[in-house]
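Hi,

I'm pasting everything inline rather than attaching a file, because the server keeps stripping attachments. The sequence lines come first, and each chain or strand is labelled.
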Amino acid sequence: MVRINSDYGKLQGSYLFSTIAKKVGQYSEEQPDRKIIRLGIGDVTRPLTPAVIKALHEAVDEMGEEKTFRGYAPDLGYDFLRKAICDNDYRSRGCDIGQDEIFVSDGAKPDSGNIQEIFAKDDRIGVCDPVYPVYIDSNVMAGRTGDYDIKSGRYAGVVYLDCTKENGFCPDLPEEDCDIIYLCSPNNPTGTALTKDRLQDWVDYANKKGSVIIFDAAYEAYISDEDVPHSIYECEGARECAIELHSFSKNAGFTGLRLGYATVPKDLKREGVSLNTLWARRHATKYNGAPYIVQRAGEAVYSYEGRKEIRGLVDYYMENARVIRSGLEKAGYEAYGGVNSPYIWMKTPEGMSSWDFFDYLLREANVVGTPGVGFGSCGEGYFRLTAFGSHENTREAVDRICRL
Amino acid sequence: MVRINSDYGKLQGSYLFSTIAKKVGQYSEEQPDRKIIRLGIGDVTRPLTPAVIKALHEAVDEMGEEKTFRGYAPDLGYDFLRKAICDNDYRSRGCDIGQDEIFVSDGAKPDSGNIQEIFAKDDRIGVCDPVYPVYIDSNVMAGRTGDYDIKSGRYAGVVYLDCTKENGFCPDLPEEDCDIIYLCSPNNPTGTALTKDRLQDWVDYANKKGSVIIFDAAYEAYISDEDVPHSIYECEGARECAIELHSFSKNAGFTGLRLGYATVPKDLKREGVSLNTLWARRHATKYNGAPYIVQRAGEAVYSYEGRKEIRGLVDYYMENARVIRSGLEKAGYEAYGGVNSPYIWMKTPEGMSSWDFFDYLLREANVVGTPGVGFGSCGEGYFRLTAFGSHENTREAVDRICRL
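And the predicted assembly:
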């Protein structure tokens, strides 16, 4: 008799964004005439840019001709894309990363969920609280945590790194040891970013302890401050302790196109084994490459036109971030983020719980945000708004919130 | 100090097809003037068909316009595709499968590698020998097997179902219990197919024992015999014991486009838990949907034009299968498969080992095939050729082999 993976039973409720989608769906059915503005899930709304569209059409045509048709992609990604990534995201920033340390994938979400597979079952993970749920949930499903405690809102066996108003939402080095540390900067959900000095502290910690940092750089395109690093490999010693995850979703709007990459330096070894080799084996066995046409679209993001257009997209969303943050502050709300990040992290008014504020905002302002507590217990009393809407909707949403 | 997943250390060598690619690459470098014909990896060579190309271009245009742009896809796939799958692959065959039992993915390889995650760590797997390596390797990586034994070429703790000339390469019901049974029909690599009666025996066995069958139907489009089922749900009771995996790679040539789906019926429960719910949770947490444009391409496969064109593709490759099998037989080789399947399973001549024959064929005929032993110890002394080349190359490869 087959038995199921009992670790799934430890998971709390359904995946956060599925729950939100259901709640919004239900409200829409009850009130079909209301115009709901979604500033909840981190999904972009601007169309793909002309350089990307052109590359897609050209690649589609190639796939329709015998001479230019492409079947299975190389396991780790096409060289043309790995080279563009290497040149633009690393070499241009002085980071010592080689093409063969880059693994093209279908996005940072799958990579951040799958990367834990190459580590031992009893490694202890350290995660920020609040945190992007995938880091924890994927480890729960793999049996790397204990049970969930309803009172604390936390899983046993996990080191939680509190990110609070007091520490500026930047995690302090942990007192307990942790083996695998997930860091996301600029941060989802708090919108804050680690300075180079702060990130260097983490790299030094990891090298001292033999830990591995999973550095999620999905939002690096939103960085404007000079002292915030775009890559963890700007820090000394990161090649020996860090894996970096990148996405094309938030810079180039690929949420519906699916493309990302993981960087695993060859100097990153544990127990004498190269993690680059382990991840290559995982990729070769359980993945079959991102679509050729999508990899060509990714290449176009790094072209001269592409880079200009992508800058335009980021500027567009950052104007929203500015509108949201300044609007909220003018209306007397406490708000954070929105500077090096498309996320605004606001304090709920009058000590309201995150989910109460979610329901309140949905019903009274027809605006969808994300309850802070959905990202962890330190997120209780907070609420995340995203800058990924249109200018018009964003302004209207802010107006509606401020009128409440 | 972080520790790595020691189960990876049990894996034998690198992934089969990576090894082949390396060997061929090396030979090409040594002999750059030789024209190598690849009948090794199961990769298609015909371009995408006009209906698919048209759907891709249209979807790309939609992604370039604000009003029609699509961000994150629904977790489990777009309804338009799930409906097309449900109507065409199931309802039209009288299979009782609902749209909400279909999970769109980026292919049958990732699905077949990932599906084991929802089962307990100490469930015992049963696999055919020879077998598509992903079924075993993904379980080795998950710690569901013991060590590899070099002498037998097998992992401890796995039930191997011998597929030999004696049983017509169709596995007999096992004497030892197994919890998760991987079946692939039409089979990769042997090219043989289970009749409905034989498959019904397996469904009955699974229901009696409480096992779950992972049924890989990636090659169903190649079926021509009437008594060979296209879906396991043509068998009575399969809704209670079977998960089915489908691919768009081998029928519609999507190897470089990446699309597949898994079917997990709601009646499939173990320990009171619905496997449909578990897989939905896995999908929502660790996956982010297939690209919109690729899902539209998938939809086009089921259109009137699309079905006609896909039939043409399959017929094209099956003509190759006929040429290979009859050519080999005429030249005195023992050959199997190639009737309901694009694979031809040949006996190596004069008791040659599979890898010796691989090297011999590469050097003497400049033809690449796949060593049978790469699929398991029962594959020793066999060799797989695929029908996915062009007519011209296929004929030339057969001529070269026959001239040896």
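Chain A has a mean pLDDT of 96.

If the labels don't parse on your end, tell me and I'll reformat.
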